[in-house]
Structures
1.
Amino acid sequence: MNSSAPAARRARAVESFRSAALDLAPIERGMSLFAVTRGQWSMIDAILVVLDSVPGPCAISLWTWTIADYDLRCVSQLMRCGRVSSARLIIDLAARSKNGPVIDSWIEMFGPASVSYVVTHAKIARIESTDGARYLLRGSMNLNNNPRFEQFDITEGGADFDLVERIEAGLPTGSDTNNSAARAASKITSAWSAAQLQMFGGFKPWKK
């Protein structure tokens, strides 16, 4: 099956009250699924379901606003057991001060090019398996559980995966990326005028 052919997609919608493993299956080429949960599973849980279903090791990238030590340990264990070949973290500038020790540990484990600081509130995961399947996961949930309504989408192949991959390729990497470079790479000013941004009080002056 051509995973990038929209006509080949089988769209499904699920109101999930069970686990990610039960409600996302089957994970397959050309899939397209939308789910509404009550927060009983997280983005990390969804990633694990995909990794359990495809040949590895897989290359993954994670977009998130914040990260906890548990998330780091989970990804680290996935790499140690051969399920992940590389991991990249795209995280909000605010995390530099809020989650500094966790991000430092991430860089120590996965290398200085494994982190990109940007201005973001997106929650996305990109997974590419050794057989060429390309899964894009996105939703309202963070990497951890949260007992409230959350929405989630997963697709395999197509322009959505390509778009996120292309944006990632244009982002600076490394813990020494200064705030100005991170903001410029985020291209917020390409969508908002300076006058419009004033409504939000401008960018927060996080310390470099």
2.
Amino acid sequence: MKIAISVNSSWNIYNFRLGLARHLMDCGFQVYAISPEDEFSPELIQAGLHHIPVSVQSKGSNMLKDLHYFLTLRAVYRKIRPNLILHYTIKPNIYGTLAAASLNIPVINNVSGLGTVFLHDTLSSRIAKALYRVAFRFPRKVFFQNEDDRRLFVQKKLIPFDKTGLVPGSGVNTEKFVPNEKKTYKSGKPFRFLLMARLLYDKGILEYIKAIEFIKPRTDAVFMLAGSLEDDRKLGIPAEQLEAWIHKGLIEYKGFEKNSLKLYHQADCVVLPSYREGTSKSLLEAASCGLPIVTTDVPGCREVVEDGKNGYLCKVRDPEDLGRKMEALYKLSEEDYRKMAHYSREKAQKQFDEKIVIKTYEAAIREILEAKEEQNR
């Protein structure tokens, strides 16, 4: 039997879905990755997936390009005839679902975060909401990564509640993301904060910089920033702004790091002042690595942190509160720091291990395929 995974980038599949894809292959399914060609496409092929390159304009709304994407997906789906399709990210969720519905192929969708569609009231966001309302009539199941997002979709009548489910984000491989046993707390080295995210305003990058300016005179900490620049200047930090921060000595910029574990093992605390997430992958990985966290008290972030137990929650869009929480963590005694670190690791293992996500998906897939087989008899 064939399962297709349709996403807006090969990197997304490699970074978030590879564990699920490998499990499905172990269960005997042929797994197809339908995504744009990028540097991670060969990694998918090497892992045993059948990769079919399909280009998509991941941001904005251009009706001609979106129509072309819909028709391309429909042609691919008709050619490979998967028994079921898993969609992630906005445009595959919308256009992939409509393409699959036209071919009577069942789908499971995943809303991995609301992104700019719900954070900003623009023409593109209004179009996307209208399209969600049409497309989400057809999935057999839609998984959300936090209760707030599910409640919002149900309240706005984008999907009936009985079609929804919850998963703990995309999960984290707790056997790969492990604490750095060689590192000792403040062993003659400066305390290192790390923010790892795409360099978007909505990730709270400006708040992080302002918080650094607020606390830097009183600490000897190092403030790392890792992530790729975005092409969209309205949503992303301009390159010249980033260079100015580096020149001022505010941050140690790491760029895009494929091996994120390497950076977690350098860090003492992970920071994410995001305005909203699905369930943040970087926070899950940080917790699994036994790192205390400072993040905003918003959906998709607060699920990972219990305030005072494995980190601190701060107010959204409030750099001074963020700075106070970062400084409080910096000043922890070794004993209290280690308690937080231990609780982070424990929480990741109990609540966010990717095995939980995989088990939930496998159950939904088998239920849908068995129901379809029964219907065809």
